[in-house]
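Example S7 (structure tokens).
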């Protein structure tokens, strides 16, 4: 019997600016966090939010039943590898796949990258140090192949930096750093992530008010962002929403003054008017009634945003479009920038896979010797936790 029942809140990461020294490093995979529970040969898969996802990945259920012992809990990431790199768009089709799951499992199978071991049989490993849990995980998966594989790890800071610098071409989000003496703390942000980011100049062509906004106390929820394609068509690519609370009212008042009245000539000629949905990607709530409606403004404002990743978002006649994977952050307004200069050329995705595919790199990385046990914990000092003792 396992010492823990599903679901368990996985240990999370907090962002830092650079890779810290003196830790264990792993790729930050662009996938879905997943905990695999195996008990009495029954396999269940659970998301970071505690939602069961067993039925979405039948190929991982079968692989786990074959590769893992009777009772264990393994933490890792579900990814789909296609054309030599990670493919988040294909992964997204697996959510709630239902009857399609078995077919998708054959045509675009998922891989589970295991990076932590929380329990084996009755043994609770949460209180054990990271280095020991890692060693036990490698022993557990020594003979595994196929869909369940250990995520590569290193204690070499230079190699971790090389992963960060070079492996964005594979679709990696960045690098994760873990203190080798640290225990596993469910739900806590006890590890560190260093993520890729970039900037782009975008057109602000609409906005949404916050759901708490009223006529007397307006509050901005988000701004709707666009980029021009090679045919000078403006496409919706994402939103920016992380505005300081003390600025939301003034920004809402400003945008309300710029709002185009529905039915007006300027509104009907806007590139995101609902009648043009077959010509451009537009926000889904343009023209709808209710608190979530997107209000249109004249697309003349430009701002610079910071974004972490893009994902393909093709539509008929526009195969190369992308959108922002998550909310972006406004870094500055660009009154000096012409809207038509804001093009997809700034955020074009890779058009070809690396010379050596991700599968090849994983195979080579798996042959690397395991890192030796660390020095006694009371002798370890790190950049992020100089007072760390034997408890991690």
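Recovered sequence:
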């Amino acid at each position: 019997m396992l010492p823990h029942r599903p679901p368990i809140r996985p240990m999370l990461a907090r962002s830092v600016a650079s890779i810290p020294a003196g830790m264990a490093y792993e790729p930050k995979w662009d996938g879905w966090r997943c905990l695999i529970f195996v008990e009495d040969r029954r396999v269940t898969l659970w998301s970071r939010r505690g939602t069961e996802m067993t039925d979405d990945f039948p190929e991982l259920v079968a692989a786990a039943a074959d590769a893992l012992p009777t009772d264990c809990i393994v933490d890792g990431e579900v990814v789909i590898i296609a054309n030599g790199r990670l493919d988040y768009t294909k992964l997204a089709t697996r959510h709630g796949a239902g009857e399609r799951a078995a077919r998708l499992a054959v045509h675009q199978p998922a891989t589970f990258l295991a990076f932590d071991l929380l329990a084996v049989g009755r043994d609770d490993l949460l209180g054990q140090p990271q280095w020991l849990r890692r060693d036990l995980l490698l022993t557990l998966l020594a003979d595994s192949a196929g869909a369940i594989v250990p995520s590569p790890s290193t204690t070499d800071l230079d190699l971790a930096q090389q992963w960060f610098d070079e492996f964005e071409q594979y679709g990696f989000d960045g690098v994760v750093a873990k203190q080798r003496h640290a225990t596993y703390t469910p739900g806590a942000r006890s590890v560190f992530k260093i993520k890729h980011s970039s900037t782009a100049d975008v057109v602000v062509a609409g906005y949404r008010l916050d759901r708490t906004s009223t006529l007397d106390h307006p509050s901005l929820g988000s701004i709707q962002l666009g980029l021009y394609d090679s045919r000078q068509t403006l496409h919706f690519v994402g939103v920016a929403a992380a505005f300081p609370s003390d600025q939301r009212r003034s920004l809402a008042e400003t945008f309300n003054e710029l709002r185009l009245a529905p039915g007006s000539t300027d509104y009907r000629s806007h590139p995101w008017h609902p009648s043009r949905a077959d010509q451009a990607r537009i926000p889904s709530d343009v023209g709808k009634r209710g608190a979530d409606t997107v209000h249109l403004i004249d697309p003349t404002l430009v701002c610079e945003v910071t974004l972490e990743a893009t994902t393909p978002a093709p539509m008929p006649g526009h195969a190369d479009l992308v959108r922002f994977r998550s909310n972006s952050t406004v870094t500055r307004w660009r009154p000096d920038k012409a809207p038509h200069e804001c093009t997809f050329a700034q955020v074009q995705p890779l058009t070809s896979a690396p010379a050596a595919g991700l599968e090849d790199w994983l195979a080579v990385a798996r042959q690397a010797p395991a890192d030796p046990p660390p020095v006694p914990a009371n002798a370890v000092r790190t950049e992020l936790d100089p007072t760390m003792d034997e408890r991690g």
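Notes on this example. The first strand starts at residue 12 and ends at 15.
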